Amino acid sequence: MPKSKRHPARRPQQRSPRTDHRPSATGRSGAATSRAPATGWRAALERRSAGPLIILHRLPSWLVPVLLAILLVAGLALPRPAQILLLVPGVFLAWLLSLSWPITSASGRLMRLFVVALLFAATVLKSTGTFGD
Known about the structure:
The chain has helices at residues 40-58, 63-77, 84-100, 106-128.
């Protein structure tokens, strides 16, 4: 008699060890990233970001983009004191940009930096009253 009375098809499958499928600095998927260990302020940033990243990873995948979109639209649509809402997506994206900087291609860095700068420029323009009042 088998050890388990459960049907073989219903037994939990053993998972094989996962390989890293993130794109490397060269942009090829599956290639190992050759990056020196972080030192100084970068190591401190990565160490302090570990806890919040774990919390973000445990959230539903749709929640963070939806919240950021709501804050973005609210910051742009509401009257002048609401420009503070634009800082939240800006700071969040700047934080992610700084964490992903070593493994992002030059064009990816430029595009992400442009988006963060655009968010901060919209915040400044909204606070001075020259944008969307």
